[in-house]
Each structure stands twice: as structure tokens, then as C-alpha cells.
Amino acid sequence: xxxxxxxxxxxxxxxxxxxxxxxxxxxxxxxxxxxxxxxxxxxxxxxxxxxxxxxxxxxxxxxxxxxxxxxxxxxxxxxxxxxxxxxxxxxxxxxxxxxxxxxxxxxxxxxxxxxxxxxxxxxxxxxxxxxxxxxxxxxxxxxxxxxxxxxxxxxxxxxxxxxxxxxxxxxxxxxxxxxxxxxxxxxxxxxxxxxxxxxxxxxxxxxxxxxxxxxxxxxxxxxxxxxxxxxxxxxxxxxxxxxxxxxxxxxxxxxxxxxxxxxxxxxxxxxxxxxxxxxxxxxxxxxxxxxxxxxxxxxxxxxxxxxxxxxxxxxxxxxxxxxxxxxxxxxxxxxxxxxxxxxxxxxxxxxxxxxxxxxxxxxxxxxxxxxxxxxxxxxxxxxxxxxxxxxxxxxxxxxxxxxxxxxxxxxxxxxxxxxxxxxxxxxxxxxxxxxxxxxxxxxxxxxxxxxxxxxxxxxxxxxxxxxxxxxxxxxxxxxxxxxxxxxxxxxxxxxxxxxxxxxxxxxxxxxxxxxxxxxxxxxxxxxxxxxxxxxxxxxxxxxxxxxxxxxxxxxxxxxxxxxxxxxxxxxxxxxxxxxxxxxxxxxxxxxxxxxxxxxxxxxxxxxxxxxxxxxxxxxxxxxxxxxxxxxxxxxxxxxxxxxxxxxxxxxxxxxxxxxxxxxxxxxxxxxxxxxxxxxxxxxxxxxxxxxxxxxxxxxxxxxxxxxxxxxxxxxxxxxxxxxxxxxxxxxxxxxxxxxxxxxxxxxxxxxxxxxxxxxxxxxxxxxxxxxxxxxxxxxxxxxxxxxxxxxxxxxxxxxxxxxxxxxxxxxxxxxx
Length: 816
Ligand code: 26M
Description:
By secondary structure, the protein is an alpha/beta fold. The longest helix is centred in the middle third of the chain and has 26 residues, at 505-530. N-[(biphenyl-4-yloxy)acetyl]-beta-D-glucopyranosylamine (26M) binds next to helix 6. Its EC number is 2.4.1.1. This is Alpha-1,4 glucan phosphorylase.
């Protein structure tokens, strides 16, 4: 256990300030204070943070093109158990820890769900105590900062490395590696008749590793997130002829080359659903994959692990298809560098790789043009081609129809299908919630499921409860510990014991009070940042997530418009409406026009409703700018209602649904993604369900039969709000209204907004009615918290460990 002593901490802190900045504490800015604190903590953990544990047991390497870490200070202090001592120590030095916490940059090296999940998994791998490490990219610019200008989204670059470094990271120039692009592949027989593969005339790019410590909760486990920065090679990596050639190039060529190299880790792609096929993206994918796989082999050589023993010593996890090139890259090293045969290499690779699918949206499936692959990564191309050839041969031997072979092939019609590559080459394929996995098995990947059903399994997502409950909602965490002790922190299944208090009015009142306090804090933030006054006594109804048509923020705002009409229609009657604040937070991919139109619509409706005196503040709409991890930590603890309203079948899992539940919000949901598991935990009487079933959606998609126009013409209230989009009723909304109108009416409402909105409105009405009965509401809230334990990512990670990583490939089953 790492221990801390207040007196020594204070001395250490002063000394570090002097070492780093040659100044006194009084002269330091908050950013400098943060940096100093960060370095002091790194000093304290440095003994425990070294690689020696690797290979004592099996090590897991989690490859992800995104890690949405969020701020680390609070979470590190919590996991180390240092928070109280450091808070006091700093206090005695005249420094407020909370101010330092707010000066930490928030590394936004991810888009949303997938990247945040990777960060929660790192926390849990360290906290359950396995040697589990992340490999990713150190983007110079993370996800853009969002600003609203004239109600529309404007993207500003996220310059998170403004001081060119990040205090948690340690750069390791000695461990830089070379990644090779383009060039030619030479195959020659050597004197002993062995095939020798060499890569000639390639463009070398250096991968520079930056390590971030990942600290486990209450144990000595400190793992590493290694993210790579791309640079021109600054030293000779062995016999790199191309490097020498580039040294001799003209000044202009040297600049071009510098740009070529540095561009690779420059920016995170801000897409989270649409595959676009840009060359630079493929460069990024190979960049961190090649560096990571080479790094793993280097470690294995250092610890004298034989290639045959690899499957017993390491597990490589592919987070969505973005790191799929792990497969051919591992094959390349085994074949070309280790000199193994194809069969030997394949048998090792397939026992090491596991893959998670995160989406069934067709447009998100990665496919790379064969021509691009051949030119940029010629050796990867050859290996994929060989994997495909052998696989397709096997399928044909089994007598499958050409139709079926076509569907299952890795390469087809000039394209490489990365999901197919992952499925064929991994021993485990998992979905991220029960329904999602079922859809993979029965619909999207059915051919593969019929072929190798033993590979498929479900791992319902989870969240780092230490960050999402203990750090972000300390009052609630303290209440829980006061009621049931602290066992739940290590094992969240103990939360169930809270159910004992379901009839305890003191506890219920305290729960309400804590929620109210969190709402006041959020209201203050919104006042300061948006200059909108909101009433903490109103229902805080929250939808925060990426903006996408399938997530149906549109249905939410159209319902707000319905309420607005209702108020105006009855302006003299003083309707007994439960006051509500509708809170939105969402970034749209910069190229996703419809999503941007919906952002503008929400902002315009907010202006209209918030400034109409006839509304008398009964409903308010707030769109919080620049939603991200740090904001989520402020918003989620303050929510009464959690909006999880995606078109059934479209949201693979969702994870904010779990965060809200754990913080005592009640869920308003379709039976989609992990909402199904929430329903299994609390029953329909403790949440608000509505909307089409999965089967209904699948049937509409297969057989047709849905007409949004018919609904629009037959439902007056619906027609009225849809017409509002185009008749000038919403000031400031221009052509964007038409775009949305067309999506709903002209293009037959792909996501069934109009089909579900009536039932949605009913569910909203039930919420309003229930909120009047505070005791009942608080009981439901308590039941939700008590049953949220299974959504800890510790549970998820333990399942990955048991069923996938440490179990490995079950050969007997495979041979059946
Ligand atoms: C692909 C190609 C080019 C550029 C970007 C991408 C891309 C980036 C991120 C595609 C998808 C990306 O993320 C998808 C995602 O976040 N999926 C979400 O994963 C969560 C964790 O499993 C689930 O909870 C969500 O339901 C799912 O939408």
C-alpha cells in the first residue's frame, strides 16, 4: 500500500514547486499548482508503476483508437486514498484542492460511448488488479470544442496540450518504434531455401510513446495507458535505407515529410457513426496498431516468452474494428520476423485476438478499398488477401452457395470488410448488451453465428462507479456508506442492501435533499455559463449524448413544442403543469447536417419557450454547450429523469443510462440497448417505458408498412408541431426546419419519431403525475440506486477476464 504523510507531502509539494518553476506557492497559477500536485503524486506512485508485473500473469492489451479519460486528479486521489490528507495539506498551504481540480485539462481523446467505455475499462482492470493496459493515439487535438453562434454549432479546435505537455504523462524516447507505410514487398528465397520477406522503399514514421499511469482502487496495481505520437524519425532504426534517403532530401521535401509524419496523430476524427474511408484514418489505424504490436513483441522478447507460449501470456482486445489491423500485423511479425509458417502463425494469432462490436448501423461498418490498402500498407494487404483466400476456400469446401460465400468473404467487390476480418480471426466476438448481442447473432452476423456460434458472447457494458458515483456525487456516496457500510465500493452488488430503507422516510428525505443540492449546483453553473435561470424545484429532465437521428433528441424537442402549445392553448386556465427543465447536451459530427439542424432547432425552441411570459417559467429548455466528461460529472448527479429514447434496436448499449440510474434518476426509455437490463433490474413499475418493440421495428424494416405521412395527416396535434418546423412559428429557424421536415415526412421518418411520440408523451405525463408524490418518487429513485450494482464496469471486466481473456480459445470447441 502506498502511504502518505501530511507533513512530508507539504514539504514535497513546496520542493516540487521550486524544482519545476523556481517560484513560491503564492506566485503560482492554478495550472501550475495542478502540475506540481500531479508530479508529486507521480513521484509517490513511481515505485509501484513499472512493468515488472507484466508476464507474471497473463497480460491484457486493450487496443482502442479512442480513450475518453476525463480529468484524472480526483479519481487518482480517490483510488490512492489520498484525498483527505492532500486536501488538508493543501489547505494548510492556503490552497483549495477543488480549484486545482477544475484547472486540469480534460483530455477529450474520444467521441463518446466507445471511448468512454475504454476509459472505464482501464479503471476497472487496474481496480480488479489484473495487468491490463491500453494502447491508443496521443492526438494533438481531441474532440472539438463546441460553441453556439446564432443557435448553430461551431467547432473550435481542442488545444488540450496548450502547454505542449500533459502532467500525467511520461514520454519514453528510448522506446520509440518505427511504423512503415507504402513501399514494395520483396520475397526472396535465402540460401537455405527459406522465404525471406523484405519491405523496401517505405516511408518511415516514428511512434513516440507517452505513458499515463492507471491507478487501481485500494491496491498496488498501476497499469499503463500508452498513447503514441507520430514524428519524423530522429534516430536511425537499424538498416532503414529510406531514413537515410530522407535525410538527404531537399528542404521542401523535408517539410513535406515532416507534415506527412506529424499529421497522423494530429486530430481525432470527430465521427461516431459514419464510416468515411479517408486515407489518413487508415494511417492512424495502422500507426497505433503497428507500434503496439511491435511493443508487445519487444516485451515478450525481453521476458523470454516464446512465440508458442504467447496465447498463455497475452490477450489482445480489439475495441471495434478500428484496431483490426492487429491481426495482420501480428501475422506479419510471426511470419516475417519470427520465421514461423503460416499455420503456426495463424494458430497463435487466433488464440490471442478477441473483438467487441459496438454498432449494428450499416453506415458505421468499416470497409477499406483494396486499392488504398495495397498502396498504403502492401504487406497488410497481402496477409489479409491470404486470410481471405483460405477462408473463402473453406466455405466453398463446405458447399455453401456463392451468395453466402459472398456475404461472408473478407474481401469482396474491391473492398475489405473489417468486421468480417475480426470475426474470422478472433476466438471471441462480443456484443455490448443482451439485445445487441441477440441482434448480432440473429440478424447482422447470423451467417457467422451459424458457422462458429461458440465464438459469440455478450458482455453488457458498465461504468466506473468510482468516478460516476463516488467522485462526482460524494454526498450520495457518503449516505450510502453511512447506511450499508463501505463494502459496496469494492463490490457494488452490496448496493442491493439499500432496499432495506425503501420505507424509511428519513432516508428518502435525505435522498431528495442530496438531489436538490446537486440541482442547485448545476443551476448555478447554468446561470454562470448560459445566463439562464432555472428552478431547482422543477423536474430536471436530461438528455446528454452525441447527437444522432437514431437517439431521437428530435422527439424530445417536438414533445416540448407540444407542451408549449398546450400552455398557450390554455393560457387563461392556469394549467396545473409540473414545472420542468429540459436539459440537452450533445455534439454533432461536423459533417452531419441533419444533426446540426436539430441542434439549431433545440436552441431556437429554447429561446422561444424561455422568453415567452405566458409560459410563466413552467417549462424551460437549456442546451448546455460543449458536453463532455467533465460536464457529465456535474449534470448526471443533478438529474431527475434520464432520457434513453433511441429507436429500439439502434443503440447497442448506451452507458449514460447506467450513470443516471446509479445517481438516482428515473429512466424514461425504449426497450433498447442496456435499457433492457435496467428493466430486468427494477421492473416496469420503477421506470417509464414506451415505444415500438424490437420485433416491430425489425418487421417494419423488413416488410414495410410504416407511413409517417398517414400519421401526420391523421393526428392534428402531431401535424401542428411538424408544421411549426416550416411555417415560421419558431423564430430564427430557417432552412434547417425544412431539412427536418423532409426527414420526417418526405423520407418517411427512418427512426419512427412520429410513430413513438404519442406513447412518449403519455410516459412524460406519467412522470409529471408521479413527481407530485415525492415519497413515491424517492422510493423509486432508491430502488434504482440499489439495483444499479451490476452496471459497475468491475462486473463487466470480471466477465471479460473469466469468459474471454483468461479462458482464451477453447480448442476442443473450436475443432467441433
Ligand atoms: C469510424 C470511422 C471513422 C471515424 C470514426 C469512426 C467511429 C468512431 C467512434 C465510429 C464509431 C465510434 O463510436 C461508436 C460508439 O461510440 N458506439 C457506442 O459504443 C458504446 C459503448 O459500447 C455503446 O454504449 C453505444 O450504444 C454505442 O453507440
